[in-house]
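SEVERITY: medium
COMPONENT: batch folding queue
REPORTER: lab tech (J.R.)

DESCRIPTION
The queue accepted two submissions in a row. Attaching both inputs and their returned structure tokens so the on-call engineer can compare them side by side.

ATTACHMENT 1
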Amino acid sequence: MVRRLPLTPVLLLALIAGSTVPIQSSPSASSRPQLAVASPVRATVQLTLVTTDGLSIRRLTDTPGAVSSLAWSPDGRGIAFVHEIRGSRQLWLIPQIGAAARALTALPGDNTSPTWSPDGRRIAFISTRDGSPQVFLMSTDGRGRRQVTRRGAHRTVSWSPDGRHLAVVAARANGADLDLYVMRPDGSDRRRVNSARLLPHPGMMHPAWSRDGGHLAYVSRVGRAEQEVTIVSADGRARRRLSTGYAPAWSPDGRSLALVVSRVGDAQIYITSADGTGSRRLTRGTGIFLLPTWAPDGSAIAFLAIRDGDLAVTVVRADGSGERRLLSTTGDLTGLPLFAWQPL
């Protein structure tokens, strides 16, 4: 069964089911920028490839259940993802576009949040195989699996672009408050780097690495209803408040971040300089716009747009022009991301 969250004005976490997607293909599709999307198809959610002009749509999976947590391999040839069916969430892999998907895990509990090492040789993920959600590593064929954390309840894991660290979000002993930690891939040298509590809500607690691996942007609560984006160095020694907002995403050149600023019944995407000196609104019109994600070359930004009950992956040029609705999507924000750019 596909799980969905209700829309709430404060957190803006709803993802609303879309319509069935027609399948097309184009021999020249691979030459155009593409996104992988978790797209509704009848009573399932399938992995679908769409070009940024919206002219080519190709379904990559055809299985019962639902896909989520899409993660491209660094070379852009394969995709790891979470496949959920009958209450079990396992990691699957399409080794290259056009190949059949195959299971990487067959473990008890939930197995989520796949993230590739920059060299493409390993995948880090979260597993509840022994009860408490912990971080595991494995090779990309599913072998050599090993546990790298032993304490805490981990929610997310992401590999730094330089391959030197993992960023993890883990709950405190009370189970409610969350903190951001940076550690070596073997679990050593673990240190907390946030100065305030992270927001314990899906879609807001995922930290964003700068392209060089030197900094992280994360979201914490300020006051009763305000969210704040902070940038911290990977060693935790230097941090600065950037802006009110959430869902930060670094530009490929490291000079800017896209983030969401919400008000009652409305959420807009802004582009903010990484040094905090300037900000401009990217999206136009009314609606709820979530989860901005930069194209690998920095020329465009994809995001989720909710308008009149329709949830769709939408793309716009980095200057805010040329907005285009690409494809319906569905799911819940615990299964991020629901769409991802193919690496160059």
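ATTACHMENT 2
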Amino acid sequence: MIPYQTKIEKLPGTSYSEVLKRARDTYRAIEKKTKRKPYVRSAYFRKQKVFFDFFWIHLLEKSHTDRVRRLRYFAAAIDLLKNSRNKPLSIDNPHKQGEILHRFAGLTWEGELFYVQVKEDKRNGSKYFMSCFPE
């Protein structure tokens, strides 16, 4: 798995409120581009849509410090999803038979390794951005 070098830095800030504000600003810019569900088009999936349905729900299940740690990579993860053509590590979901989990690797502008996980529904081919996290 070859990591994609993003042109985006990690979101600055140490407290949850600082990082959340910047991540929400990035998300709102994506949200304003459509009247329906927010999405980004992925270069790897031949410009198919990747939706954000599960990301915020999944994030709220994490501890407070883990949320900050993950949110700092949000903007870089969006850039990776939009532009990366590098092959991810893809496995069948061991907990649900009808899903495939794709894990992309990326490097921030500072050179820090992080991962982005996308869930694909086998029945209809829908893709959902699940999580982003550092190494």
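NOTES FROM REPORTER
The longest helix spans residues 16-31.
No errors were logged for either attachment.
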